[in-house]
Design a protein that fits this description.
Strand content: 25-35%
Radius of gyration: 23 Å
Structural class: alpha/beta
Number of helices: 6
Number of domains: 2
Bound molecules: flavin-adenine dinucleotide
CATH superfamily of the largest domain: FAD/NAD(P)-binding domain
Oligomer: single chain
CATH architecture of the largest domain: 3-Layer(bba) Sandwich
Order of helices and strands: EHEEEHEEEEEEHEHEHEEEEEEEH
Number of strands: 19
Length: 335
C-alpha cells in the first residue's frame, strides 16, 4: 500500500483530492471525530449527508449533554460542534455518499458531486428511527412526536402520552415515561407484546400504563404541537380520535449501513461490527456512533465513540506512514 501525506489547497474542490481522513456523517459522532482528527493535524473532510447535524438537530432541547447546565437546543449543539471542528481545519461539505470502495487504497467514496479519496475513513452515518409513515408524523417531530424517551420524557411531566410499539424498547421506554407522564397508553397492532416476559410483567403491573390492542395509529393531529392521534382497530376497522399530549414511537431503528453491504462486516440487525477501538474489519476504516451502537444511542456516547475512532485513525495513519518510510529507506539502501 503506497502512502504519502499531502494537503489539498484550501478552497480547491474536494473531489478527486486525497484526504488523510474522510468522515461520513455530520452528527455528534462525525463532528467529534472531525474535531479530534483535525486537532491531530490531519487533513479532514466531513461529508454531511442530507441530515446536516444528524438526529439531534431534529430535537429542540438537549438537557443531558454535559457542559450545558441550562440545556441547549439540538441544532445549536451540533452547530457548535461543527464550528469547533472547522476552527481546527476540518472541511465540512454537503454531499451524500452513495457507494464506497474499500478494496483499494486510498479508499474511494462516491457521492453526488464526484469521487473522494481517503487514506482513512470514519463511518458515522448514524441510524434512523423507523417511522410510522402516517400524516402528521414528520410535521410534529420534536413538537410532541418523539423517538427517544430518555431525551424527551422530561417535557411530558403530568401529561398523557401514547407509546407505539410492542417490543423491548417500547416497554422499557414506557416504564421510563411513567416517571414523568400521568398516563402512558401503549398502542400495539397485535393482541400481545413481543417484549421479554420480565418487561411485560413490569409494564402490566404499572398502574400508569394501559394498553390498546390490535390498533394502529393512522394519523397524528395538531397545529403547533401534538393534540390527538387517530386510531384504527385492525380487526374491526373501527376508528376514533384520542386526545393526547405526546406520541413516542418505538418500532425499531434502521442503521444507515446500506452502502456498506459487501464492503464492511454488518451484524444480523444491520449495525456495523467494530471492536473496542472502533476498528471495522477493514484496516483503515473506523466506525462511530449509532451506526455501530444498538445500545446507548445518545449524543454523549456517540461523540465519545467519534473521539475514539479519530484517535485510532490517527494512530493507524502514523503506523502506515512509518512503515512506508521504512520501505523507502530499504529501497534506497538496496538501490
Ligand atoms: C428527536 C430526537 C431527540 C433526541 N434527543 C436526544 C437528547 O436529548 N439527548 C441525547 O443524548 N440524545 C438524543 N437523541 C439521540 C441522538 O440524537 C443520537 O444518539 C445521536 O444523534 C447519534 O449521533 P450519530 O452521529 O451517531 O448519528 P446521527 O445523529 O444519526 O447522524 C448521522 C449522520 O450521518 C449522515 N449520513 C447518513 N448517511 C449518509 C451518507 N450515505 N453519506 C453521508 N452522510 C450520511 C446524516 O446526514 C447525519 O448527518 C435524540 C434523537 C432524536 C431522533
Amino acid at each position: 500500500m503506497e502512502f504519502s501525506l499531502g494537503m489539498p489547497a484550501a478552497g480547491e474542490p474536494t473531489t478527486d483530492k486525497l484526504f488523510d481522513v474522510i468522515v461520513i456523517g455530520s452528527g455528534p459522532a462525525g463532528l467529534t471525530a472531525a474535531l479530534y482528527a483535525a486537532r491531530a493535524h490531519l487533513d479532514v473532510l466531513v461529508l454531511t449527508g442530507s441530515d446536516i447535524g444528524g438526529q439531534v438537530a431534529l430535537t429542540s432541547e438537549v438537557e443531558n449533554y454535559p457542559g450545558f447546565p441550562e440545556g441547549v437546543q439540538g441544532p445549536e449543539l451540533v452547530q457548535r460542534m461543527q464550528e469547533q471542528a472547522e476552527r481546527f481545519g476540518a472541511r465540512v461539505e454537503l454531499d451524500t455518499i452513495t457507494a464506497v470502495d474499500f478494496q483499494q487504497h486510498p479508499f474511494v467514496l462516491t457521492g453526488y458531486n464526484g469521487n473522494y479519496l481517503a487514506r482513512a475513513v470514519i463511518v458515522a452515518t448514524g441510524a434512523s428511527p423507523r417511522k410510522l409513515q402516517v400524516p402528521g408524523e414528520a410535521e410534529l417531530t420534536g413538537r410532541g412526536v418523539s423517538y427517544c424517551a430518555t431525551c424527551d420524557g422530561w417535557f411530558f411531566q403530568d401529561k398523557e402520552v401514547v407509546v407505539v410499539g410492542g417490543g423491548d424498547s417500547a416497554m422499557e421506554e414506557s416504564l421510563f415515561l411513567t416517571k414523568f407522564a400521568r398516563q402512558v397508553t401503549v398502542v400495539h397492532r397485535r393482541d400481545q407484546l413481543r417484549a421479554s416476559k420480565i418487561l411485560q410483567k413490569r409494564a402490566f403491573a404499572n398502574p400508569k400504563i394501559d394498553f390498546i390492542w390490535d390498533t394502529v395509529v393512522t394519523e397524528i393531529l395538531g397545529e403547533e404541537k401534538v393534540e390527538a392521534v387517530r386510531l384504527k382497530n385492525v380487526k374491526t376497522g373501527e376508528e376514533r380520535v384520542m386526545p393526547i399530549d405526546g406520541v413516542f414511537i418505538f418500532i425499531g431503528h434502521i442503521p444507515n449501513t446500506g452502502i456498506f453491504q459487501g464492503q464492511l462486516e454488518i451484524d444480523e440487525r444491520g449495525y456495523l461490527v467494530v471492536d473496542r477501538r472502533m476498528h471495522t474489519n477493514v484496516p483503515g476504516v473506523f466506525a462511530a456512533g449509532e451506526v455501530a451502537d444498538p445500545i446507548f444511542r445518545q449524543v454523549v456516547t456517540s461523540a465519545g465513540m467519534g473521539a475514539a475512532a479519530a484517535m485510532e485513525a490517527e494512530k493507524w495513519l502514523a503506523e502506515q506512514k512509518a512503515e512506508q518510510e521504512e520501505r523507502e529507506q530499504e529501497r534506497a539502501v538496496t538501490a
